[in-house]
Specification:
about 240 residues; single chain; about 0% strand; elongated; MetI-like fold; mainly alpha
Length: about 240
């Protein structure tokens, strides 16, 4: 916490001494005052709920697609032949570059925003789940077969649990990309959400409101990442891990 505290103190000092003009970046006291005003009117809470809903819906859609394709590709050589190469080609295309096509396909409502987030989040989950399945210890597979486990039981009790650590890592990556895609998505004719507040603030050069929105994006991302890390500790409690020295 020392680094962020020192950064805020330096920011405050630069604002108070005039080194950092308010038209370039508002000071911390102004930002806090603006945040309090937005909370009082309820605008900030409404924007947070809208943006969080978009991010989670897009993540759920993209995650479902990514995990499903990874399981099909990871468990079957035929699935790998049919799925992996197209996915590897598609993931090299920046999701942001698809915004014009998404607007043509889905219009300028909620659909292109959610689709952009889904596209961005599907690939990290696919890559990590696929790698997790293919990196399961072969000795565990052989032990399961020796115990007479069927293919379905082997997948359920050995392969998928073995891939879970990678899947959770992929989920954390996808969450980061979800917030990035959300920022871009909410620039597409948004009428609500944090991006909408930022767009309005940009028109009136309200740097304080823009900073408030950026902080909210960061805090929402941090909160969701904390939830995933908590899930890691719960579901991976069986796995010994290095915790630092």
């Amino acid at each position: 916490m020392t680094g962020p505290v020192l950064l805020v103190l330096a920011w405050h000092a630069a604002s108070e001494t005039g080194v950092l003009p308010p038209e370039v970046l508002a000071g911390p006291s102004t930002v806090i005052s603006s945040a309090a005003g937005l909370i009082t009117t309820g605008d900030l809470q409404a924007a947070m709920i809208t943006s969080l809903g978009r991010a989670l819906f897009g993540l759920a859609l993209g995650g479902t697609i990514g995990v499903t394709l990874a399981v099909l590709s990871g468990l079957s050589r035929l699935g790998e032949d049919l799925i992996d190469s197209p996915i590897q080609m598609m993931r090299t295309v920046p999701s942001v570059a698809l915004i014009p096509l998404l607007i043509i396909w889905f219009g300028i409502g909620e659909a292109p925003k959610v689709a952009l987030i889904a596209l961005g989040t599907a690939f990290p989950l696919y890559l990590n789940v696929y790698a997790g399945i293919r990196n399961v210890d072969l000795s565990l597979i052989e032990a399961g077969r020796a115990l007479g486990l069927s293919r379905a039981a082997l997948i359920r009790h050995v392969v998928l649990p073995g891939a879970l650590p990678n899947a959770l890592v992929g989920l954390r990556y996808s969450l980061g990309i979800a917030w990035l895609a959300l920022v871009f998505g909410e620039q597409i004719n948004a009428t609500a959400g944090i991006g909408y507040l930022m767009a309005n603030a940009r028109e009136f050069f309200q740097t304080d409101v823009i900073v408030v929105c950026l902080v909210v994006y960061a805090l929402l991302g941090l909160a969701v990442d904390f939830i995933v890390r908590t899930l890691e500790r719960i579901f991976l409690s069986w796995r010994p891990a290095f915790s630092g020295t």
